[in-house]
Structures are given as C-alpha cells and as structure tokens.
Amino acid sequence: DVLADQIAAGEVVERPASVVKELVENAIDANSTQIDILVEEAGLKSIEVVDNGDGIAAEDVSMAFERHATSKITTREDLFKVHSLGFRGEALPSIASVADVLLETSTGDEAGTQMHIKGGQVIGQSLSAVRKGTDISVKDLFFNTPARLKYMKSPQTELANISDIVNRLALSYPQIAFTLSHEGRELIRTSGRGDLLQVIAGIYGVQNARKMVKFKGEDVDFEIYGYTSLPEFTRASRQYISVLINGRYVKNFQVTKAIIEGYGSKLMVGRYPVAVLNIKMDPLLVDVNVHPAKQEVRISQESQLQDLITKVIYKELSKENL
Ligand code: ADP
Ligand code: MG
C-alpha cells in the first residue's frame, strides 16, 4: 500500500540524512566491514550506500520492500532483546515510496538480484552480478511529495546533517571502515581497524583527539568504556555526545546528562563535551521499543547507571591537571 508507506515515510524519512542513517544501519546489521556512502546534491539527487555485508537472498528481495517485513525479529521475545539497529521493517518501503530506488544485492553464493522501485511501484527485477553485499541507490528523494521537498534546508545544512550521522555511526563502529563522499569529494574516511581514538582523530582532527580522555568503569550491572573531551574541547550542542548500549547507538537524556555532570563545574555555560560512551549491559534491561526513530531507550536501574557514569568521568577528569 503505497499511501501507507508514504505516511510511514513521513516519520522515518524526514530528510536525506534520515535515508543515509537507515541505509547505513541496514548495512551494519548485515555484518558489513566496509560501507561507502556516495552523495550528490546533499542527497536530494542521489544517495548510494555500498556494503560488503550478507546481502539479501533472491527470494527475500521483494519482501524487504514490504511494510513490517523484517528479517531481524521473528518472535515477540526478540522484541525485548533487540540486537540489530533495525527491527521495524519500515525503512526500505518508506524510502522506496518517495524516491527512485535501485537495489543490487547478493549473498555471494548465487546470482544476485537487481530490483528497481520508484514511488512504491516495482519497475523491474532481474538477475545481477554475484559480488557479496548490497548496493542501494536512492535517487530523486521526495520527487512525488513536493510539500516535503519544500521543508529541505540549504544544501550545506542537509549535507552537514549527513556528515553528522556518518560521523556518529563511524564513532559507534570503529571496526567498520566508512567513507562518505559528496560529488566525488571524500569527506570522511575511517580505517575500520577498531581503534576508537583513531576514528575520533579522523573526524575531529589529530589535535582534538589529543584532548580526549579515556575512561572505563563497571559495577555489578553495567560496564562502561569510552572517551570524553577535556573541558577545553567542547561544542555548543549536546549532539557530539554519542551513547551506545551493547553496540547500538541510542538516545537517552539521563545518560547524556550523567556525562555532563561528570564535569562538575568545569564546563562553560552552553558548552558540551565531545564524547563516546559504550555501555555493556543485560539487553533485557533496555527497552528500545519506545519511538519509531528507535533511538530513544528506556533503561532499568537508570539512576544507578547515571551514578556510575558521572563518578567514572569525574574521577578521570580529576586526574588531568585542569
Ligand atoms: P529493518 O531494518 O527494520 O528490518 P528495513 O526496511 O530497513 O527494515 O529493511 C528490510 C529488510 O531488508 C531487513 O530486515 C533486511 O533483511 C533487508 N536488508 C535491507 N538492507 C540490507 C542490506 N544492506 N544488507 C542485507 N540485508 C538488507
Ligand atoms: Mg533498517
């Protein structure tokens, strides 16, 4: 149902950066180790994501474009211990309902599949090469929803949003090699060698990476690990604080706040640290099923976790001579 998909698209696909996010998350879920993102005209003309992941078997390709078809959740139980980034099965059908999408995918052990869908209509499906992985290209985003096109900000802003998303994903997955290029110009490249500080250096510069402090701590329920910036390296927004729970990028106001509180009174008003915080915990204690953008999470024993974070960061920053 194309109309239902377009309505869902209103929630899932707000702007080019949301398409990048959904496609890259799918590539991550598919166990890719290399993800290349190629963008033209800030994503409005074209967004292409090429991965070397598991690919989609020929018989499953059309399913992938059906609403609420996800290969990632099979039982109600699964919903309470989601390990993958996607699980709602809404992204591909939503994107395909408001753009011109060409998907080429192969699991590597049989002929691949090429599928072309425009504005929710299947234009064609055929066999393609066997290279293992998926190459998905999204052209003319919002071509059939002019009202949404009008909401787009300047190309610089849309591109900055895309860069932010890719930066965050790269910081979240140091073991994946990412590239982002805009009109042939490379904006981001990470090595995929797994060193978080190296990714930080690639994104914020080597100088700034030297201003990051490593922290690590645990209690009976949580393990935390990451980097957070010295008070001399801050930003005017909280969005440079990345939080990952069991490898999943999440948003949680209290956790972010706990990081900031670790600074005591060391931050200037309106300034926020740059940080990457990894949290390991029992997946049954996180509820990811709060919001369709599926980044908001609810955590049991949240205040215990907050205390741990604040304490560990405070202690680490106190060691530095500030
Ligand atoms: P979700 O990620 O919530 O499952 P999506 O609409 O994003 O839903 O994707 C639908 C399905 O298509 C996924 O469950 C997955 O099986 C498949 N898929 C999408 N992108 C890829 C990819 N890059 N590599 C392998 N499989 C993919
Ligand atoms: Mg997805």
UniProtKB/TrEMBL annotation:
The chain positions of domain DNA mismatch repair protein S5 read 200-318
- The residue stretches assigned to a coiled coil in this entry are none
Function noted in UniProt? This protein is involved in the repair of mismatches in DNA. It is required for dam-dependent methyl-directed DNA mismatch repair. May act as a 'molecular matchmaker', a protein that promotes the formation of a stable complex between two or more DNA-binding proteins in an ATP-dependent manner without itself being part of a final effector complex.
Please report which protein family the annotation says this sequence is part of: Belongs to the DNA mismatch repair MutL/HexB family.
Name under which the protein is recorded: DNA mismatch repair protein MutL
Please give the organism: Pediococcus damnosus
User: What gene is this protein translated from?
Assistant: mutL
Q: Which residues of the complete protein appear here? A: 9 to 330 of 651
